[in-house]
Design goal:
globular, alpha/beta, about 210 residues, DHBP synthase, about 30% helix, about 25% strand, 6 helices, 11-stranded mixed β-sheet
Length: about 210
């Protein structure tokens, strides 16, 4: 194994902060599954994520932000999007939105949509506050491999381009986020996950 696994602490957050700001990628716990992350403003770092995960750029990464205001800087929100974000964030709902900026990297540059959420996990929150930038993320498994609960079982850790990882299983559901896109007063399910569709329908119905 090439990657150093750190326990969550103030010190490990600072180590991870320096690593990410230097253009490295890292394994982090989230409120769903273990993820691989890079600074979203650093194209070379984001490209590393795709290479390490062996993921095609036609399958974009999800952007983690620390606040709704930060999300509004990179994507356009409808009235319904804002209501859903306020209800489910921080949490395991990813919203697919119209991209607002070209200064965020997460996949093929021709993509006009962007997936965004605020994760409900103290490690990611601390990291987002430390780097003061959005993170481009995806699950930490090799493309088409299953997710694992034990970080030491991640085959991706053997990659020489991964310098560090933080281990902390608290507040992890080990179920991927639910992904939806809204249109007018309705929504389309793109991936079922942690947030129940019935809960989303209730919020959408209340809006109408």
């Amino acid at each position: 194994m090439n990657t150093k696994i750190l326990k969550y602490s103030k010190n490990s957050i600072q180590i991870m902060k320096r690593s990410l700001l230097n253009g490295d990628v890292a394994i982090i716990p989230t409120d769903t599954v273990y993820g691989i992350a890079a600074l979203a403003k650093n194209k070379k770092a984001v490209d590393k994520v795709f290479r390490i995960k062996k993921r095609p750029k036609s399958m974009p990464l999800i952007i983690f932000v620390k606040s709704l205001n930060d999300a509004k800087k990179i994507a356009h929100f409808s009235k319904l999007d804002i209501k859903l974000a306020k209800h489910f964030w921080p949490g395991s709902l990813t919203l697919i939105l119209n991209k607002k900026t070209k200064n965020i990297y997460y996949g093929d540059r021709r993509l006009k949509k962007i997936g965004v959420r605020i994760p409900n996990n103290k490690v990611v929150t601390a990291l987002l506050n430390a780097v003061k930038n959005p993170l481009a993320t995806t699950s930490a498994n090799i493309h088409n491999e299953a997710n694992v609960k034990d970080i030491s079982n991640l085959s991706i850790l053997r990659n020489k381009n991964l310098k560090s990882a933080i281990e902390d299983r608290k507040n992890m559901s080990f179920t991927e986020s639910t992904i939806i896109a809204t249109h007018e007063n309705n929504f389309k399910i793109l991936r079922k996950g942690k947030v129940k569709i019935s809960e989303i329908r209730k919020v959408v119905k209340d809006e109408n």
